[in-house]
Structure formats: structure tokens, C-alpha cells
Amino acid sequence: SVYMTYNSTMKNLYNIETYRFTLPRDMFYTDNTGFCVPSNSCLPDGLFTMSVCEKLRTGPVEIDLPVVASNPHFLYADQAVQASVIGLQPDDTSHLSYVDIEPMTG
Prior knowledge:
Layout: E1 5-11, E2 17-22, E3 47-49, E4 55-58, E5 61-64, E6 68-70, H1 79-83, H2 92-95, E7 98-101
Antiparallel strand pairs: 1-2, 2-7, 3-6, 4-5
């Protein structure tokens, strides 16, 4: 699982006040070993495996799918990860993952 932290108060498209929650910068760092399953298979900083969550079922056979998640454009990922794709230039303004929530929603 992942968590988000409060970042700011925003106004949405309809001028409704919302609270913006973002993924913390260190969310996918290898120091957070709870994201390494099994624990000896940590990916570089900025990536985490979702393979244990996703399985392909074909009849009696169940296969782990190699699914990896990150911030858009590998924002906050290890430099080696960012350099593995030509042309990426991650920045907070364009590539920060966020959720805007209206505070009065129950």
C-alpha cells in the first residue's frame, strides 16, 4: 500500500476548495523495506513492485505479472533509473502524483 500527505489547499476547476495530497518524496525509497517483497528484492529508489498484487490466471496456472510502479517520468527515482530513458526531464510541477479531495465530503 501507499500513503499520501497533505501538501496544500487548492481551488479546483469549479472554484471549490480542495486539499491536495501528494506522494512523499521518500515513498518508494529502499529504506522503506516494506515495499520490497520479498525483502531481499528491492528495486532502485523510486520504484516498487506490484507483482505480488497482480497475477495472471489461466486455468489452474497462476503467474506473477512483472508490474512496477513509479511517479510519472520517474520523479524522485534513482538517477540511473531516470537516465535509462532518453528525454525524460522530471520536475515537481508537471510530474508530482497527487489527489485533490473536497474537505467536506463524508
